[in-house]
Write a structure and sequence with these properties.
It comes from Carboxylicivirga linearis. The structure is a single chain. The protein is of the alpha/beta class. It has one domain: Rossmann fold. It is built from six helices and six strands, in the order βαβααββαβαβα. Helix 1 links the parallel strand 1 and strand 2. Helix 1 packs across helix 6 and helix 3 packs across helix 4. The radius of gyration is 16 Å and the shape is globular. The protein starts with a strand and ends in an 18-residue tail after the last helix.
């Protein structure tokens, strides 16, 4: 069975971001694809300290202790796809989600592109504005990792304020459902051709500001 790991960057386990993720998950599950949600936003994830240990050790781990990042990395590595979900804070993703993504994707890159050729998508919930910027921020992690990205029939942004209000955004709900359908299709297409995926080229060296 194929599997998608969904990352909920919201501090609210049952907030609007969780509802948006579930809309996509419903469509994936209809196609027999398992979805596991990892709650990130309610945990204390610190940012990358640019120590470079993950690149030196090559053990697929971040050396920072005290959170579940390394467990999440392995779950994403074993999954067929990833769905990133975040609320909008000051016209971008929230800080905890940024810290999680910076560290997880740096470890993945430094250890042979662990997330390469998976199917990746992002979805955003916002009260008023900043949704496009937040969506682009998350998409850049997916693009950098050489993931295959499904689209919907509009930007993957749902509007709402209080928990559950995004479900009243009829167009947003429809966009999320189309994203789920297209993600399922792409997952199946990639899975069918996984033996024919191209090998990677030598990767560009990634340097963090010291």
């Amino acid at each position: 069975m194929m599997k998608v790991v969904a990352i909920n960057g919201s501090p609210k386990k049952k907030g609007n971001t969780a509802h948006a993720i579930q809309l996509v998950a419903n469509e994936l599950e209809k196609e027999g694809i398992e979805v596991e949600v990892i709650q990130v936003g309610s945990q204390a994830y610190t940012g990358c300290t640019a120590c470079g240990a993950c690149a030196k050790n090559k053990d697929e781990k971040c050396t920072i202790k005290g959170d579940d990042l390394n467990k999440a990395i392995q779950k994403i590595k074993e999954a067929d796809g990833i769905l990133l979900g975040s609320p909008v804070y000051f016209a971008d993703i929230n800080g905890t989600m940024k810290s999680f993504l910076d560290r997880a994707f740096y470890v993945a890159s430094a250890n042979g592109k662990l997330f390469r050729h998976k199917v990746g998508a992002s979805i955003v919930t916002v009260r008023r504005t900043g949704g496009t910027q937040a969506l682009q921020t998350m998409n850049q992690y997916l693009q950098f990792s050489e993931m295959f990205m499904p689209s919907s029939n509009y930007w993957h942004i749902l509007h709402g304020n209080t928990p559950g209000e995004v479900l009243k955004d009829e167009e947003g709900v429809q966009i999320a459902r189309v994203l789920g359908k297209n993600m399922a299709f792409l997952l199946k297409a990639v899975h069918a051709k996984k033996d024919e995926l191209p090998e990677g080229e030598p990767k560009v060296k990634m340097n963090l500001v010291r």
